[in-house]
Every structure is written in structure tokens, then in C-alpha cells.
């Protein structure tokens, strides 16, 4: 099942060495060789993992808008972001990680916070699909991670909240720092290392989609740019 209503299966793909990896919205992880890409019948081989038990809540596999949000292969590890539920009916976006191999993926927590947005909250709105979740390589042994506002818009303007933000997470310490705020639902990130520019694509509520960028090559005085 997909994370978007009536969309069928939703998956994410990435090239790595001579393989193409695929991760479905509900946690199926598989690969195929790139030299088979033109085959009439493209067959993927699934990789067993502990992703079901680690995510740990049954709604992940049935609830609309909840699922895997993206994945990244970096330093021979696979990072997967997903809609997490740290408390009953209270959601955020998290990351798990495993050493990359094609035998068995033993995932552990990488970025899982207790802060969450309740389905029924004082703001009066909630959308699980509005969770962001894009992961991208960055500089200085960091990855970038987008977290949506889950339609609790005030949190995007709170620098102490993880919601409505793009953050950088250190791969060794797992500590994060704020890159930008005021986001609704960033689902596209690309860091151009040579130019030191971060490109950001973001869904609007009904049209009004945005493409923004942050130029890190210049004197960057805005501590927390607000989009």
C-alpha cells in the first residue's frame, strides 16, 4: 500500500555501486543489479530485516499517510526515515540505521525523539502525510533531515521544536543542529557540494509549491533562515 490515498505502491530508489536499492513505503527492502535495468521483467531480491519490530506499532502498516519517507545509503550504512509514534496516536518523523549488506539488515535507532504531534490536538488540525522525512548527504560528516509540521503550523515557528525544520545530524554523535525553519512539508533536498548550495522543494497546501535554496558559499549570517 502507498502513503498517498489511491496511489498504489509507493517506493524510493537509490543507486549504490553496481546495484539499485528499493525501499517501499511499508518497509520492504530489495535490490537488483543495474545491468538488468532493461530486462522486460525486472526482478528485485528482498533483504530480511528487523524493521517491523523496531518501528513497533501496527498502524504503520495500515494507516493512510504513515510509512517510510525516504532512505539514504552513506558510508556503507542505510538510513531510513519513517513516520514514528513515540506515544499512542502521537507522531513524529524518525530515522533508523543499519550496516548495509544483502543478507540481513539489523536496524538500530539513529534519530528518534519523544516530541510528537497528537492526532487530536489543541491546534485542531493533523496530517500524518505532512511529515517531511527527506534525508540528504551534507558536509562535515553530517546528513540533512527534513521534518514536516504535521499541520501544527505554530511549531514550524518555534526554534526549540523539531517540527517544520531542516536539521543537520552528526553521524558520530547523533547530535543535531538547526539549518532552517518555517517549513510545511519539505520532501526534496539536494546539496550541491561543489557550489555549496542546498536546494529545497516543498509542497504547498493546494498549489503554491516552493523551490528555495541556501547558499553556503557566501558569508552566511542568517542563523536560522525562516521560509
Structure, briefly:
2% of the residues lie in helices and 42% in strands.
Polypeptide structure, described:
With 227 residues, the chain is mainly beta. It contains 1 helix and 16 strands. Strands 5, 6, 7, 8 and 9 form a 5-stranded antiparallel sheet that branches. The protein has a 4-stranded antiparallel sheet with strand order 1-2-3-4, with no helix packed on it. A hairpin with a 4-residue loop joins strand 10 and strand 11 (142-147). The protein is globular and about 45 Å long.
Largest sheet: 5 strands, antiparallel
Give the overall average pLDDT.
92
Tell me the strand percentage band.
35-45%
Query: Helical proportion?
Result: under 10%
- Got a strand count? 16
Radius of gyration: 17 Å
Distance between the termini: 32 Å
How large is the count of helical segments? 1
Shape by Cα distribution:
globular
Poorly predicted ranges: none
Which key phrases capture this entry?
single chain; 227 residues; five-stranded antiparallel β-sheet; mainly beta
Amino acid at each position: 500500500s502507498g502513503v498517498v490515498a489511491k496511489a498504489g505502491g509507493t517506493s524510493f530508489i537509490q543507486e549504490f555501486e553496481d546495484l539499485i536499492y528499493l525501499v517501499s513505503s511499508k518497509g520492504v527492502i530489495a535490490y537488483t543489479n543495474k545491468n538488468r535495468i532493461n530486462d522486460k521483467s525486472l526482478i528485485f531480491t528482498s533483504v530480511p530485516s528487523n524493521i517491523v519490530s523496531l518501528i513497533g506499532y501496527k498502524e504503520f502498516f495500515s494507516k493512510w499517510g504513515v510509512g517510510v519517507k525516504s532512505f539514504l545509503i552513506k558510508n556503507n550504512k542505510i538510513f531510513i526515515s519513517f513516520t514514528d509514534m513515540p506515544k499512542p496516536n502521537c507522531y513524529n518523523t524518525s530515522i533508523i540505521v543499519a550496516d548495509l549488506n544483502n543478507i540481513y539488515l539489523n536496524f538500530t535507532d539513529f534519530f528518534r525523539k519523544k516530541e510528537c504531534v497528537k492526532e487530536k490536538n489543541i491546534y485542531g488540525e493533523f496530517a500524518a502525510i505532512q511529515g517531511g522525512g527527506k534525508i540528504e548527504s551534507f558536509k562535515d560528516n553530517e546528513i540533512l533531515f527534513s521534518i514536516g509540521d504535521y499541520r501544527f503550523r505554530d511549531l514550524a515557528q518555534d526554534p526549540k521544536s523539531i517540527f517544520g525544520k531542516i536539521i543537520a545530524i552528526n553521524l558520530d554523535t547523533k547530535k543535531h543542529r538547526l539549518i532552517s525553519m518555517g517549513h510545511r512539508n519539505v520532501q526534496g533536498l539536494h546539496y550541491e557540494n561543489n557550489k555549496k548550495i542546498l536546494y529545497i522543494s516543498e509542497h504547498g497546501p493546494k498549489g503554491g509549491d516552493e523551490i528555495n535554496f541556501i547558499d553556503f558559499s557566501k558569508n552566511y549570517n542568517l542563523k536560522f533562515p525562516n521560509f
